[in-house]
Structures are given as C-alpha cells and as structure tokens.
C-alpha cells in the first residue's frame, strides 16, 4: 500500500504510557500513516519521527487547531491519562473537532475494565463516564478498548517497559508478599502493553467497531498469580486478605492520596467483577497470541537475584 492511500490514524497522547505501545503496534503493522498529538515539541521525540510517525504539538483547548490537524483523519485513538478533570474537556474538545473534521471513528481514553456509571472507581465515574456519554450522544462510531490490568506492572519494582512505570499492584514478587481484597478467587483479566498495541492495530482493519472491544492476555485470579509467584520464586508468599466490606470502609477514609485510593478501588472493582469481560478482540483476531501471565512472570522473575 503506497503512503498516499494509507488511512491516517491519530493517537492523542501517544508519546508515553499505553499510548506509546499503541503507536508502536500500529507502526509495526506498516499499513497506516500514524500521527501523534502531543504537548511536547516534535524535536524532542526523534525516536518516534525517525520511524515515520508525524508528531504534532497541540493545545487541546485550541479547537481550530484540532479541527485543522484532524482533516483527512480516519480514526482517533485517545490515550490521555490524568488524575484530574483536565482530560475530560480535552477529550470533549477532540470529539467536537473530530465531528467537524468528519473523522470516521474514535476510541476514548478508557483502557481498563468493564465499567459503567455505577462503578466503584470514583475517578472513572468522574473522568470517563461523561466522555463516553458525549460520544454516544454524538452518534460517531466508537469502541471502548477493555484491557483489564496492565500485566507490565507485575514486573514491579522492575520495569517491563520504558513507557510504563513501576507500580506494585496486589503482589510484590520481589518481597514475596501480597495484599489482596476479597477471597482472591475472583476472576479478572490482564494484558501486556505490547499486546494491546498489536490488538489495536488489528482492530483498525475491522470495517465496523463494536461498542466494547475486549483484549485479554490472561483471565486469572489473585490466588492463581500467587501460586505462580511461589513456584517461580521458590518460596511461600505471605498473603494478607481484606474482605470487601472492610476495604470499602477503608477507602472512605482516604482523602489525600488520590493514586492509592484509585488502586484500592480497583481492587474492590475486581471483587465486583468489573475487570472480568469477554475477550472479543482475541476471538476476532486469533492470529495474535498474547503473552500469558505465566509467561510474563517467568520472563520477569525466573532469574531475579534480589
């Protein structure tokens, strides 16, 4: 396919986090013109531009600029991440500009589980639900990419990705300890960031998007992960369990640490089934073989000397 006939795909926030993995996945497909919206100057992102990625410095409050840069764009994928309300208006501005520029479809910045307005995750209710409702009302084609927990975090305190930081979630494999909300037998999904990029690239080939697109590396439980950790590390883990009701009471007392409150609400969301969903994109794209949690833990911890 010659460059002139390729569909143009915009990734808003594609310079870091899950966005960077999505950019890499789409670039690797060699089927699209990839354009990244960033608040950074393109001259600081040579590692991207050398691969043919077009980096555009944008101000998400400048609606005229957004409309201009979205001319001729087929799909917008949003990966903006924030713990405050700034990303809500940025996404709404992107949506309005996409509608004006006649973009075919959009994927809002969700990249988590199967949540709705009744989710236990406060930040989701405040930052994600309003954007999804605006998109639904606009009538543009869209999908919500559901990926569960990022598998990359299970290498922490090591890092499995240059763009995904270290964050211990549930199980600390370096110390052989775990702190679990619920019984530990509640199922949830998790996916490696590199595999998210591959599946999103594959989804661009679909003629029509479903409202939800499930991407799953593994469907597992905390207790299964702990057993894998004990096998790989060769020692018994010390595990502390907190019942869901007690966890909910503790969350209500958290006021200062926004990130810690979010993590605790994610644990509670797992208990309530918000991270357990159908692997719909896996079913559509069986040629993609994602990394399993066992493979990932072996890769991350089999030779650990800490």
From TrEMBL:
Protein name: NmrA-like domain-containing protein
Keywords of this entry: NADP, Oxidoreductase
Residue intervals of the NmrA-like domain: 6-297
Keyword Oxidoreductase: yes
InterPro entries for this protein: NAD(P)-bd_dom_sf (IPR036291), NmrA-like (IPR008030), NmrA/Isoflavone_reductase-like (IPR051609), PCBER-like (IPR045312)
Record carries keyword Oxidoreductase: yes
MF term (GO), any: oxidoreductase activity
């Amino acid at each position: 396919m010659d460059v002139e006939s390729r569909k143009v795909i915009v990734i808003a926030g594609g310079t870091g986090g899950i966005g960077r993995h999505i950019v890499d996945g789409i670039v690797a497909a060699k089927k699209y013109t990839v354009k990244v919206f960033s608040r950074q100057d393109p001259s600081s992102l040579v590692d991207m531009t050398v691969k043919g990625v077009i980096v555009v410095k944008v101000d998400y409050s400048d609606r005229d600029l957004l409309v201009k840069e979205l001319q001729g764009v087929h799909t917008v994928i949003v990966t903006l991440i924030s713990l405050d309300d700034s990303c809500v208006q940025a996404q709404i501005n992107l949506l309005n500009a996409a509608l004006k520029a006649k973009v075919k479809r959009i994927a809002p910045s969700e990249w988590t589980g199967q949540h709705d307005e009744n989710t236990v995750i406060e930040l989701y209710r405040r930052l994600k639900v309003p954007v999804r409702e605006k998109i639904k009302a606009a009538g543009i084609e869209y999908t919500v990419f559901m990926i569960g927990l990022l598998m990359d975090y299970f290498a922490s305190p090591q890092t499995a990705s240059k763009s995904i930081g270290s964050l211990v979630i549930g199980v600390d494999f370096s110390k052989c300890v775990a702190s679990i909300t619920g019984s530990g037998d509640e199922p949830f999904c998790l996916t490696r960031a590199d595999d998210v990029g591959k599946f999103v690239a594959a989804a661009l080939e679909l003629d029509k998007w479903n409202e939800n697109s499930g991407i799953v590396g593994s469907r597992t439980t905390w207790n299964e992960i702990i057993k894998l950790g004990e096998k790989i590390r060769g020692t018994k883990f010390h595990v502390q369990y907190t019942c869901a009701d007690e966890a909910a009471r503790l969350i209500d007392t958290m006021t200062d640490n926004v990130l810690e409150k979010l993590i605790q609400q994610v644990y509670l969301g797992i208990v309530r089934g918000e991270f357990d969903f159908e692997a719909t994109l896996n079913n559509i794209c069986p040629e993609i073989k994602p990394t399993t949690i066992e493979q990932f833990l072996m890769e991350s911890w089999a030779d650990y000397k800490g």
